[in-house]
Amino acid sequence: MKKFFTLLFLAPLTVAGQSLVSNLPQNRTALLEDFTGVNCGYCPDGHAIAHNIELVHPGEVVVLGIHAGSFANPSAGQPDFRTTWGTAIDAFFPISGYPAGVVGRHTFPAGLAQGRGGWTDMVEELITYSSPVNLGMESSFDPVSRDLTVNVEWFYTGDSPGGNDRITVLLKESHIIGWQTDYGNGNNANYDHTHVFRACFTETWGDVVSNTTAGTSETRTFTYNVPVGFDIANCDVVAFLGEYQSDVYQVREVDADGGVT
Fold first, then answer.
1. How far is CA 57 from each of CA 33, 131, 238, 260, rounded to the nearest angstrom?
2. Which of 82, 118, 183, 245 is the most buried (most CB within 10 A)?
3. CA 150 to chain centre
């Protein structure tokens, strides 16, 4: 898959000019990276657990399905959801079995990457942590050019513990019908795949955010030309900000065909 992105605008904002974020301190929101594959028989159970976590914590959790590793290698007639970005992320984290979950890229006492049985506790702990930054975004889509434009805005309510942070913006798609090995319910050639990581607008590990002290704010605008094979009505844009290859402070998602969060 080929990536197309353009950084259109980068400038500091004043507090008075903000429209997408609050300047009041907030808690972290949780990015749940679900490492999965179409030939992973236990992965549908992980999908169900992730979905239930979303239902219990609306607006506090964003699920991202990263298809990588040997179980993501498709056989004839199976969908190929692998991406270069997802493969790199999977290789970096200590993934020893599938499904595995990383929550907020935070290392908990039980570890960084954990099996599906640990995801709920990880999320419920992480969302009690305070965040040094607030994040918001909006999107618009041109159906003729298929250009997706995303404005991302953030405001630091406190100093970032990590110093230089990173902003990551990506696209995910749901309701893609295709094969899924399933040990619990039987193999399914018409499985409804959700939260599939499709493309990254930024570098794999995000673009550098240098101004990370309390009271600073910034906005960046990205465009991505969405491939014809992606159903924009089923796509969401995800943005998250945190340390390099480590703790994610806040994550947000919005409908790709127009929305604000």
1. 16, 17, 17, 19
2. 82
3. 14
Q: Is residue 142 within 8 Å of 223, Cβ to Cβ?
A: no
Backbone φ and ψ for 128, nearest 5 degrees, come out as -90, -10
CB atoms near residue 108 (< 10 Å): 14
- What is the DSSP annotation of 220-231? EEEEEE--TTS-
* Residues in Cβ contact with 125 at an 8 Å cutoff, skipping those fewer than 6 apart: 108
Which tens digit of pLDDT belongs to each residue from 82-115? 999 999 999 999 999 999 999 999 999 999 999 9
Outline where 119-261 has alpha helix (H): 119-126
pTM greater than 0.85 (yes/no): yes
SS3 188: strand
Mapping DSSP to helix (H, G, I), strand (E, B) and coil, where does residue 236 land?
Answer: strand
Which helix (DSSP H) or strand (DSSP E) does residue 103 occupy?
strand 100-103
Q: Which two tokens stand for residue 114?
A: 């954990």
